[in-house]
């Protein structure tokens, strides 16, 4: 009885996986995944890589044109309440000295 239980469980898992993949078996399943993968590559992956390469190429051209140009190497911390950007220790609030006598 115990051996039939795990066989049934394994069969249920295989059935679930097969159904979740579209219910196709064999060559049709492989062909459909190949078509889906090819479409995904040409619609999402390739354009993303091409855009990244183009941006890197433009950045390299810009850097080559002026090698002494200043380039900010650290990312600013967003601060929507104050000025929008913080690069270090805050100087203080804007109204810190107005209300004091």
TrEMBL record:
<keyword id="KW-0472">Membrane</keyword>
<keyword id="KW-0812">Transmembrane</keyword>
<protein>
    <submittedName>
        <fullName>Uncharacterized protein</fullName>
    </submittedName>
</protein>
<feature type="compositionally biased region" description="Basic and acidic residues">
    <location>
        <begin position="92"/>
        <end position="101"/>
    </location>
</feature>
<keyword id="KW-1133">Transmembrane helix</keyword>
<feature type="transmembrane region" description="Helical">
    <location>
        <begin position="26"/>
        <end position="45"/>
    </location>
</feature>
<feature type="region of interest" description="Disordered">
    <location>
        <begin position="73"/>
        <end position="101"/>
    </location>
</feature>
């Amino acid at each position: 009885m115990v051996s039939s239980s795990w066989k049934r469980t394994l069969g249920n898992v295989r059935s679930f996986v097969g159904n979740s993949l579209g219910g196709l078996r064999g060559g049709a399943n492989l062909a459909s995944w190949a078509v889906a993968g090819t479409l995904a590559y040409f619609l999402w992956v390739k354009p993303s890589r091409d855009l990244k390469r183009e941006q890197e190429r433009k950045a390299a051209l810009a850097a080559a044109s002026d090698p002494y140009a200043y380039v900010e190497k650290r990312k600013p911390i967003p601060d929507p309440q104050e000025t929008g950007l913080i690069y270090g220790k805050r100087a203080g609030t804007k109204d810190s000295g107005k209300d004091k006598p």
